[in-house]
Specification:
This protein has helices spanning 21-29, 34-42, 45-51, 57-68, 72-83, 90-99, 115-123, 137-140, 147-157, 171-179, 193-201, and strands at 5-8, 15-17, 86-88, 104-109, 133-136, 164-168, 183-186. The protein is of the alpha/beta class. It has 2 domains: 5-16 and 88-201, HAD superfamily/HAD-like (Rossmann fold, 3-Layer(aba) Sandwich); 19-84, no CATH class.
């Protein structure tokens, strides 16, 4: 099937936590499992609410501060260490840039309310320059794997759903997209993603 649009998830695909030492250090400092630390940040009710635009990211960090009894300065240090292992994949960014204008390129992410400004200020990722479209769950009030977010994606990129190639690291998001006829790649660490995409583009 012809592909007219290439769409990436951000967290776990384009932006990955490649150095876990900081989160391990936080776990040791607070005598907690690193997985518990990640859940405290990503899986709290405040984080889930921020992903659909109900609350701001400050609520997430307030919850962390309360749970760990952190002062303002200690919370800022926690945030710095928590994020220090994240790396943006410049090779994938270049690949997406090079795909334009032959393909409509987009990012589809479940992210907190300040994600757009964070991506621009921290990594220079901007709509209309890095990719054609950035669709963020908190800005539209719908998160993957809700079918409505994929339908909105199709409307925004101006393609039939079966003409979209979507890459995500969460299998539930991939399966939900496939149910609607979207072509998918389930990204996993170590995968040669560019080669996987190019093999589908030549079919």
């Amino acid at each position: 099937m012809t592909i007219k649009s290439i769409v990436f998830d951000i967290g776990g695909v384009l932006l990955r936590s490649e150095d876990e030492s900081g989160r391990k250090a936080l776990g040791e400092k607070y005598n907690l499992d690193p997985g518990w630390i990640e859940n405290l940040v990503f899986q709290s009710p405040a984080a889930q609410a921020s992903s659909i635009g109900s609350v701001g990211s400050n609520d997430i960090w307030h919850n962390v501060a309360v749970k760990l009894s952190l002062s303002k300065d200690a919370l800022e240090e926690f945030k710095r260490i928590f994020w220090q292992g994240d790396r943006i994949d410049q090779g994938l960014i270049k690949f997406l840039h090079d795909c334009r204008p032959k393909y409509k390129t987009a990012l589809l992410t479940n992210a907190w309310m300040d994600a757009r400004s964070f991506l621009m200020e921290t990594y220079g990722i901007t709509e209309g320059m890095t990719v054609d479209l950035i669709l963020i769950s908190s800005e539209i009030g719908i998160a993957k794997p809700d079918p409505r977010i994929y339908q909105l994606l199709g409307d925004k990129v101006g393609c039939h759903l079966h003409e979209i190639l979507f890459v995500d690291d969460f299998i539930e998001n991939v399966l939900a997209a496939e149910e609607l006829g979207i072509q998918t790649i389930h990204f996993q660490v170590g995968m040669d993603l560019i080669n996987e995409i190019e093999s589908k583009l030549t079919i």
